[in-house]
Design brief:
Elements lengths: L1 E3 L5 H19 L2 H26 L1 E7 L3 E3 L4 E9 L5 E6 L4 E2 L3 E5 L5 E8 L4 E4 L3 E6 L6 E6 L4 E5 L12 H9 L11 E6 L11 H7 L3 E5 L6 E6 L9 H20 L3 E7 L3 E7 L2 H12 L9 H7 L8 E7 L5 H9 L5 E8 L6 H9 L3 E6 L1
Parallel strand pairs: 3-12, 15-16, 15-18, 18-19, 19-20
Antiparallel strand pairs: 1-11, 2-4, 4-8, 5-7, 5-10, 6-8, 9-12, 10-11, 13-14, 16-17
Helix pairs in contact: 1-2, 5-6, 7-8
């Protein structure tokens, strides 16, 4: 859709001068004034046609370098503008809901396309469209300007920024898992990477009997990873009347940070969050799981209506061992603490992160967490 956006007085001034020349030519009988008047009217018509054709035949493409960034990182694009109408003056403006390093740029097209690097810096997490864009095309004389709206061509997922936190070692369930490795085979460690000599404390079910028979000494199978803790992160996305947006953003940043740290340490991490839509990601390892968790946190809408205690009760904990469960919540009522201790497996390691708008958490919930032997961290947003 094209729209004439000229706010300048040049066309009207040229029209008045042309009319004055034509009237003067009729009054004094001079052909020079008549030629000047017709020439000015021809320039106006040529400029109008030039600007309109330039706006119709201009072509814009945007090449996105990466579809995922974190808050504060640069979104890099390559803007390509081409047109079959030479010497058109084009102004590029981007109306995407992210901050830009510049408001736009102006270029004059020749027969070769124009390529420019375009950078944006997102200030909040979410799923954003890069656009809409506006191309304001004018003729070489600058008399007429046509604006063309272009719909978003790409979308980008902005992950939450990581919160500065020291790594947290999940030791209790990990040690319990290593003790259990001598009693039964871990279903997670199945790929044999190498074979080494037996060491004191190694599980007997990891003996590689064929190599042991050849060498005459016990040999142990080295696998892809040691039996370790599976970690569940449960984020409370209910929206309470007294909550602020900053409190939720801080909690989401903490969840993303913990998931990143534990996945980097080789643990299997899962996510449970009941926002506007429930999301349950079973524990898994690797870069793909990291991407799934960060994507889910980036697009999380904190408008959940399911209480935290019910969320914990609805999770199927049957058959899960070596668990570490981390609850991140702004609910400072002690009701959910009892369900946290009752519904989760007895051998699991329980962690809690309490988010408070200001000051310390209420003593009642702190006492309940201490009585349930839940490691607690209080974060003020």
């Amino acid at each position: 859709m094209l729209r004439l956006t000229s706010s300048r007085q040049r066309p009207w001034l040229i029209v008045l001068i042309a009319l004055f020349c034509l009237v003067a030519a009729q009054g004094i009988g001079s052909s020079l004034f008549a030629r000047i008047g017709y020439l000015l009217l021809a320039v106006l018509g040529l400029s109008l046609a030039w600007a309109w054709l330039g706006a119709v035949r201009v072509h814009l493409t945007r090449e996105l370098h990466t579809p995922r960034v974190a808050v504060g990182e640069r979104i890099s694009e390559l803007i390509n503008i081409s047109s079959t109408v030479p010497w058109s003056v084009i102004e590029f403006c981007d109306d995407a809901p992210v901050a830009h390093l510049s408001n736009g740029f102006v270029t004059t097209l020749t027969r070769l396309p124009v390529c420019r690097e375009w950078y944006s810096i997102p200030t909040q997490r979410g799923y954003f469209g890069l656009g809409p864009s506006r191309l304001i095309v004018s003729d070489p004389f600058g008399l007429f300007r046509f604006e063309r709206q272009i719909a978003p061509m790409h979308h980008v997922i902005v992950h939450p920024a990581f919160f500065p936190m020291a790594p947290l070692h999940v030791g209790r369930s990990l040690e319990w898992g290593r003790q259990q490795a001598g009693r039964q085979r871990s279903p997670q460690a199945t790929t044999i990477m190498a074979v080494r000599e037996y060491r004191t404390g190694d599980a007997r079910n990891r003996i590689h009997w064929r190599t042991t028979a050849k060498r005459g000494i016990p040999m142990i199978k080295e696998q892809t990873h040691e039996p370790g803790a599976q970690i569940w992160i449960i984020y409370d996305a209910t929206l309470l009347p007294h909550q602020t947006a900053m409190l939720h953003e801080r909690g989401i940043a903490i969840a993303a940070t913990r998931a990143h740290q534990w996945l980097a340490a080789g643990h299997a991490v899962g996510l449970v969050v009941y926002g506007a839509q429930p999301t349950v990601l079973p524990p898994a390892r690797g870069a793909a799981q990291r991407m799934l968790i960060l994507d889910a946190l980036a697009m999380l809408v904190c408008e959940g209506a399911t209480p935290l205690a019910r969320v914990i009760a609805q999770i199927d904990w049957h058959g899960q061992r070596q668990l570490t469960i981390c609850v991140i919540t702004h609910d400072c009522q002690p009701d959910w603490v009892a369900m946290f201790g009752y519904a989760t497996p007895a051998q699991s390691e329980r962690l809690a992160v309490l988010l408070t708008a200001q000051g310390d958490a209420p003593p009642a919930v702190i006492q309940a967490l201490h009585h349930a032997q839940i490691t607690t961290t209080v974060v003020e947003a």
